[in-house]
Amino acid sequence: MYRPYRLFPAAFLLAASILQAQKPTDSRLITSGSVIPDEGYSDQPYIVKTSDGAWLCVITTGPGVEGAGGQHVVTRRSMDRGQTWSDAVPVEPSDGPEASYAVLLATPYGRVYVFYNHNTDNVREVIGDKPTYKDGLVRRVDSQGHFVFKYSDDNGRTWSARRYEVPQRDFEIDRNNPYHGRIKYFWNVGKAFTLKGAGYVPLHKVGGFGEGFFTSSEGVLLRSGNILTERDPTELRWETLPDGDVGIRAPVGGGPIAEEQSFSLLSDGSIFCVFRTIDGHSAFTYSRDGGHTWEPSQYMRYANGRLMKHPRAANFSWRCENGKFLYWFHNHGGRFIREHPNRRTIAYEDRNPVWLVGGVEADGPTGKVIRWSQPEIAIYDDDPVIRMSYPDLVEDGGKYFLTETQKDVARVHEVDRGLLEGMWNQLDAAGAPSNGLVLDTGKDTKMPTLPLFAQRSKRADLGREDLRNGFTLELWLDAGTVVPGKVLADNRTAEGKGFALVASGSHSVELILNDGRTESRWTSDPGLLTDGARHHVMAVVDGGPKIISFVVDGVFNDGADDRQFGWGRFNPNLVSANGGPGVRVGNGVAKLRVYNRALRTSEAVAAFRAGGK
Prior knowledge:
Blueprint: H1 10-19, E1 34-36, E2 41-49, E3 55-62, E4 72-78, E5 89-90, E6 99-106, E7 112-118, E8 126-127, E9 137-138, E10 144-152, E11 164-165, H2 172-175, E12 184-187, E13 193-195, E14 198-210, E15 213-224, E16 239-241, E17 259-265, E18 271-276, E19 283-287, E20 298-299, E21 317-319, E22 325-329, H3 335-338, H4 343-346, E23 354-363, E24 368-372, E25 376-379, E26 389-396, E27 399-405, E28 410-415, H5 417-424, E29 437-441, E30 445-446, E31 454-456, E32 464-466, E33 471-477, E34 487-490, E35 498-504, E36 508-514, E37 519-523, E38 535-542, E39 547-552, E40 555-556, E41 568-569, E42 582-585, E43 589-595, H6 601-610
Antiparallel strand pairs: 1-28, 2-3, 3-4, 4-5, 6-7, 7-10, 8-9, 10-11, 10-12, 12-14, 13-14, 14-15, 15-16, 17-18, 18-19, 19-20, 21-22, 22-23, 23-24, 23-25, 26-27, 27-28, 29-43, 30-42, 31-32, 33-38, 33-43, 34-35, 34-42, 35-36, 36-37, 38-39, 39-40, 39-41
């Protein structure tokens, strides 16, 4: 007779039934979101709230893959915050020239404009670079042509029959393309916005097609001073900003890519802009005069001055209704992308998970600036190589929602308000968390049972059920404690089952997890744990995305210049980190705290600032 306990010991099943009577949920898991319907391909699900209270979502879709024939723009309405959607309303038909990459702008009097790329001339090929394109011709034609708009006066139920072109001034990058600007290469993402009675629409100019698809790029804004009041679309006036013939580019010394500019407004009327590069970091700049001029671009930094890491992926910022900010990025890169021989292409990889940071305004030398918190995981997929991108933020009734797409499915996700508030308060918060604290000691003692990562399911095949649990180890270390090979905390049995935190070389610590079948290890960033100082270490084991992260002395470890990823994935087959009945605490460990959940970065920072109290 088949006996389940021969694979999973009876003690394991008992612990599972006690600790996990019900399957937990994780709202960060991408499949927990609500699907936005599409035709197969789905891109850039952007939302505005209309005058009748609906969410109006525009999406680029089609029956094929990105850039294939039949790609067109549609809209849908939702009256229940994205739980259900109306039938699609085509802005352009699927049997016409490619229509792509739309953004929406709502006016005070209720009209909604939709702006998008349109291959109006039905160009079927353009000149690209050899040898990327063997014959020098690019047959993907959705990122060139004309920038156009239609409008709706019934909250997106119908769109104007006529489309109208938005003129864009030639820049140096246009004149240098193979057509000297007669055909323009471009696309757009993100959010249109209004400032001082004018409407602004982002646009990203492209210099050429080759390795990595776009070979050079820069950002501009299309500004209309009368779009918020003028009802006749033929009377709209447009200007291309910034002044001159050079757009928003990468910092001095950076690469030729500066694209997907995202704009946010500050309380003093300044415009903040963040964008992607192939330099291993995103970049930002401010305009203090409505977009006519921009301060020299810089790479993004946390409030403590450390550089943020980011690949060649959309990274958007939003100003929230409370006057604070959120920023979406992917938290890896640095010189490992910047110095890679194929950086134009490999920089597109690793867009899972999504990380957020929170921003608050501060006074700068030339106006208001944003100070950014350290990161938190917002959305993840169980498949580590899945990509997710092109988000939007919607606030409704005091709740926060993110949209995103994996290119074949787009979703809406409600974001935990507590996660956001923790980041906004992170720069000042202090105090050790108590929720989930199961051990607080400075000596050898009995070890509480840690939550299981997985258990046997109730399915007929008795297969694995992922519980998405986690735990956290917090240590205060006396000066001189981090000696290579020294055990700081150890719950392992003689067979090696359990967890251990061990001092390793290069002034770091290593976490070891072992369930008797599988072992995983990850270290903190090297060089942070100096010999002559007291240190605080948080080792966070997050069983949702299966990620181990370290926060050392209040600093989230992102790998710095030593590695591309400061956070690491543990084996998804790991069942548990439970070992023996006790935990051994090493000499020089002033305090060991164990939590039966994965602490947030904001909690780890606040615990460090509390100083061990």
